[in-house]
Amino acid sequence: MARLPRLTVRWRLIVLIGCLLALFGGADLVQGYMIGEVRAGQASLREEYRRFEVIQAVQQAIIETRHIGGQLNSAIMVGDVAAQTKARKAQVIAQQAVSEQLKRLAAFEPGKAQLISESLASLESDSEKAIHLLAEHREKEAAPSVAEVQRRANLVQNTLDDIAMQERNTSERVLLLSEQRIDLVTWTSLAAVIFAFTVGLPLAVLVGHSIVQPLKKVAAAIADVNAGKLDFELPPLTKDEFGQVALALVQFRDGSEALRRIAFYDSLTGLGNRLSLERAIAVLLAGGNGAAPVTVLLFDLDNFRSINDQYGYSAGDEYLCEAAARLHRFIPEQAELFRFGGDRFVAVLALTGDRSVDDLRELAECVLRGMSSPHLQGPRLLNMSVSIGVAVSPADGESAQHLISSAEAAGRAAKRSGRNNVRFAGGMFTAAMRSQMVLAGDIRRALEHGEFELYYQPIIDGPKGHVVGAEALVRWRHPQRGLVAPAEFIAAAEDAGLIGALGEKCLRMAHAQATRWLSMGLNLRIAVNMSARQIQDSRVLEPLKALRAQGPEAAAMIELELTETVWVERSENTRRALEEIRRMGYRLGMDDFGTGYSSFANLQWLPVDKIKIDRQFVDNMAVSQQAVAIISAVIALARTLNLTVVAEGVETQQQMDMLLQQGCTLFQGYLFSPALPSLEFEAWVADFTAERARYTH
Ligand code: C2E
Ligand code: CA
Ligand code: CA
User: Fold this and answer.
1) Which of 32, 77, 292, 376 gives 20 to 30 Å between its CA and that of 326?
2) Ligand 1 binding pocket mutation candidate from 443, 529, 530, 667 (most atoms within 8 A of CB)
3) pTM for this structure?
4) Digit-coded pLDDT (tens) for 619-631
5) CATH code for position 355
6) Do 548 and 598 fall into the same domain?
7) Which of 551, 525, 545 is nearest to 470 (CA)?
């Protein structure tokens, strides 16, 4: 079986037909020969019958002449001349008949016919001589002739018997032979049939199988190809015609796979291109059956063009690959990423049941944060950030094209509003607006009811083992929802114009706390977060002024943390406000350092007192050389500018050790404590200090 495919199908069929022809032809030849032989046997049998006839005829004719001879003898004996004449005439006719039959006998027994004819002739003459002598009553003289007649008659009879016997033997032999031949013919036919079944049939089945099986596979593969499938099961690459077809199919598949890659994939990043994006959206829209909304997130790199212009295309390519890799890392697992062309990427995902606008915003913000750390490319530290446009079906479009163009429009809006930003397309935006309006009303009410409070997270000087301060982190003690984290309401408060009021509330609480701690003899700095929106509002200075007037010592303990966006905007008003704040005696810190846009350059625009290394770098330190490089660069820069450096989000001893090695001394993070209500915080500080004291003694 395994052997067969070595032969081509043509040769297999030729061999099969040849074998069958040889088999049945051979049997036919043998049978034909045998039948011929049987026929010949039959002919000779017929001949034998004819000979018996001849012998019988000779015997009959002799009997006839003897009978007439008897009548003649009687006539001679009685002397009836008339009867004698009549008998003699009859005798002549009978003798003619005998000689005629003897002539026929002579055809196959010439010697014996001669002998019979001579014996008969002398028998006639002797018999007549004897009769005449007897008629004359000369019995003694007649006796020798009578004996001679008797002898001759016996001779004739014996000769005829001989011939008959001989012919019988011959015919019996012929009969036996032809019976044997008939047997032989029967057996050869049977043997041919058995042979055909035992050899011919399996051979035919084998050859048939060796053709039908691969034929089925080839047909199935071709059917798959026709149906547009490329992952069809390949027929084996045998050496026969099917192997050639399989080879052709392989070449076809590889060729179309290559074409498909060119048609549907971006060669630089390996991501699907615009065409496969449209297909993927169409598939999700069709498969979703309207149940699961399809979300399209468009990511537009903020400063790709300047990288291309400044450092060339290969640097640009590398930058794009890094951007693609980061996006991949930060989008959800079930989302699919595509390169939309140039410096734009698109992620597509089907929103599952309970996902909301807030989840999408959170997702987009996670990507913004993830993307926005500088990228160390060779000797250069390149900033990276994206603007994100989000569109969701069906509100923002019910077709792939419509959804994409909605996301593009939203992406442009994000770019206009200051890059490193996310915007929702119309449909979703109104939904988001609606829920934000509800939230805004809730925040307003919460401000009136005093539902906001500050939690404090300790900041520790590692080498000295002191608590040097705390970051004040706002919490909302919601009557229904319980304790709510700032991520859930800060953005809404900003959008609703309530951040000023909320910020002022926090400042007052922090100032009161500082006053209390000073009175307790606790010398702790309090870092208070300020959003960019808050600082853009000129009214921000009022409460700061008031608090300073109320208690300048406590005000001096307050450090305002601002995210980099404040620096990025570089508005003159902001700059003036910040300078004024510093003049009032407040300290300024740059929060989330490294995640924003061209961080280092911003430091020169407005000096600050403190830099806070973003949690993300601390997180990545163990796995990314780049993160370590950036941290050590930040620390070196901070030293030369005489700035305090705090690392936030320190969760493990290993992270702290690495940071210490880099020269960072101030830490904040779960390794020490999460943010705590003020009383708990105070107890924690007392414990920590006591513990350290015990440890150092
Ligand atoms: P942030 O200024 O970067 O604050 C640090 C956040 O990291 C806090 O989250 C803190 O609880 C968390 N954190 C501290 N240590 C660790 C750690 O070791 N591991 C991890 N995974 N997280 C750690 P929180 O309190 O939820 O605050 C989130 C953000 O909300 C803050 O980020 C800040 O941007 C904003 N925020 C908080 N309070 C205020 C406020 O009073 N005013 C304004 N405008 N924004 C605030
Ligand atoms: Ca902060
Ligand atoms: Ca931070």
Assistant:
1) 292
2) 529
3) 0.49
4) 888 888 888 888 8
5) 3.30.70.270
6) yes
7) 525
